Amino acid sequence: MDKTNALRAGALVAGTTLMMLLMTSPALALTRDDGDDPGPGLSVIETLGYYVVAPIALFAVIAGLVMVLDKSTDRAPKAAKPVKAKA
User: Fold this and answer.
1) Is it the case that residue 17 has pLDDT exceeding 70?
2) What is the average per-residue pLDDT within 55-66?
3) How far apart are CA 56 and CA 64, in angstroms?
């Protein structure tokens, strides 16, 4: 990659990042919208449970069910065939 293409790619990435940051600034506003009725916040334990433990547990359950209910018969290791030497 030559210097011109690298500069062009860097400018594109920097411009895109800047535009994304400028467009997301309203998301950080502290004023409430009309009809906004937020519920109570989550504790640290609830947050970890919902976003860390629950997905890992769900993955483990699905993977376990797939392994237990797998009816494939071609999973057994194959016996090595003897190699015939050519004379």
Assistant:
1) yes
2) 96
3) 12
Quote the DSSP letter at residue 39.
-
In the chain, the amino acid numbered 48 is L
**Which residue type occupies 33?**
D
CA distances from 33 to 24, 49, 84 (A): 16, 29, 80
- pTM score, whole prediction: 0.47
Among positive and negative, which fits the CA dihedral 11, 24, 28, 41?
negative
- d(CA 28, CA 8) in angstroms, rounded, equals 31
- In the block, tokens 């003897």 appear at 82
Confidence class for position 28, pLDDT limits 50, 70, 90: low
DSSP conformation letters of 45-71: HHHHIIIIIHHHHHHHHHHHHHHHH--
